[in-house]
Amino acid sequence: MIVTIPILILIFMNQKKLLLQLLKALSKYLLLPFSWLYGTISSVRNNLYDRGVFKTYESHLKTIVIGNLQVGGSGKTPHTAFLYNLFKEQFKIGVLSRGYGRKTKGLIAADDTVSADIIGDEPYWYYKTLKDAKVVVSENRKTGLQYLEKQNVNLVLLDDAYQHRAVTCNVNILLTDYQLPYYQDFVLPYGRLREWKTGDKRAHFIIVTKCPENMNLEQKIEMIQKINPYDHQHVFFTGMKVLKPFPFKGQQSFENLNNGKIIAMSGIANPNNFLLSCSQFNRMITPLSFNDHHSYVKKDIRQMLSLLDENDTVLITEKDATKLVKPGLLKMIPEDKLFVLPVLPYFLFKEEEKFKNSVRIYLK
Fold it and tell me: pTM (2 decimals)?
């Protein structure tokens, strides 16, 4: 009765927009009981692992987990690549991923016969970009580790395995987005957390990602205080450097195409940072966003082409580029119109060497 009165008043006043906002807010609060149930189940599961009731597997290889407490959008893929480049001179590295979004199951080792559909967009990008890495996908990380133990690797980077408690690793790296840190979030489905915030205690390193370039020391200290790290934890901050766009198809330089608008096409969890990166070129931006891990089809390319005028260009993420390498789609994409926008994480406050040395200690 209390809820229906304001709804009836809004209907009477013909305030459709306010009514929709109210209904949206009410529907979100209805999710709270399911969040408490989900959080309780994940808490019980974690407790059983902590007590040793559920057994875990520990490989003799050096292992680093890169993950988060929230679903999507924290920058796991570029940070995994960053770690590879940071340690590739010291170790022979394997990259192990679940292969989210792939159309296959089981363990698959990447080779020249695979595609994004077979191993997933992120592992396929690792395979194409990290030239000497041994890339493997497996839903069962234990099976994947046991396979890599027979390969010529001595360090494994486990992408998005923070909640995969069936394996124990040397280093747990927890990523969280500067714009929505995990300590301000709530458990699914009301929020975006995969488990309660107390899951951060398993991390050795907490990295706040996608920080603004001009972040100051006061802001850094404030965030560390809110994170309230345990004695064993280190907190670092990274930003994303936007590199020069390169042609997906064609030879033209992006700098020579400085007229018209940019179509910012992406199928990622949080396109806002991508749109912000596109805006640095001082051209009008038209977003074309799809769901995370979107599998592109011809209809999507036709939609993209319908937005293009003669002087316009399209920018896409590196992850999205892996899903456009299909014969049927490639034929539809005109040359010198679509460009890939690479990004590279960097440590703020000149702490890259400090981070590297700290990780080395855990690996020893």
Answer: 0.90
